[in-house]
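Dear Dr. H.,

I hope your travels went smoothly. While you were away I took the liberty of generating a structure for the chain from your last submission, since the lab meeting agenda had it listed for discussion. I wanted you to have the full record in hand beforehand rather than looking at slides cold. The sequence, exactly as received, is reproduced here:
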Amino acid sequence: MNIKNLNIRWATRSVRPAAVAGLVLATLGAAACGSSTAREGQGASYPIIGLMEGASGAGGTSLIFVTNSIHSDVITFVKSQNRYTTFNDVGRVTMRVAMRDVTNTNAPTSNNAITFNRYRVVYRRSDGRNTPGVEVPYAFDGAVTFTVAPGDEALVPFELVRVQAKFEAPLAQLNTGGSPAIAISTLADVTFYGHDQTGRETAVTGSIGVDFANWGDPEL
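The corresponding predicted structure, in token form, is as follows:
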């Protein structure tokens, strides 16, 4: 990941416990804010995506995270080095954990903490043209390890668009050397997989928009 010199926070902090009765996924056009779209598992606790964010890797040493749709540049001219290069794009998730039985007065135990160990990114288009390697980039699996206890939250970076995807179809065809006259607008569905401390598996999905094009280059 192209995050060596980037100021990305990994943080765990306490939040006020609250009863979670439901979750609404809000979608505006082709861009989706981060939100839980799937809860699986039979454990006493379950994960909630509080926020899904993304940032273009072409922004230099300072990432600008947004919640609706990121501009993923397929090729970037670095003026200071007088050459073209390609960057990966970074995502960031705010993860929480809640208890299923909100009427239980007993405090959660360490068994209710959820450890996440991998994630999967799948790209799709709103027009239904979703053939991997033809109309959208290939899906991929990534490794990530972090643990969240009930009442806490974690802010965790991850790779949203791999650099190799920009050398493969259909993104490679967007490298026209000009303005973003041709673009591919997608939704990236990111599913995080984990388990509680008794081994019960769980998963949660959030979405964010990713617009691929040969965007105008920043002053790097």
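Two observations you may find useful: The radius of gyration is 19 Å. Confidence is low (pLDDT under 50) at residues 1-39.

With kind regards,
E. W.
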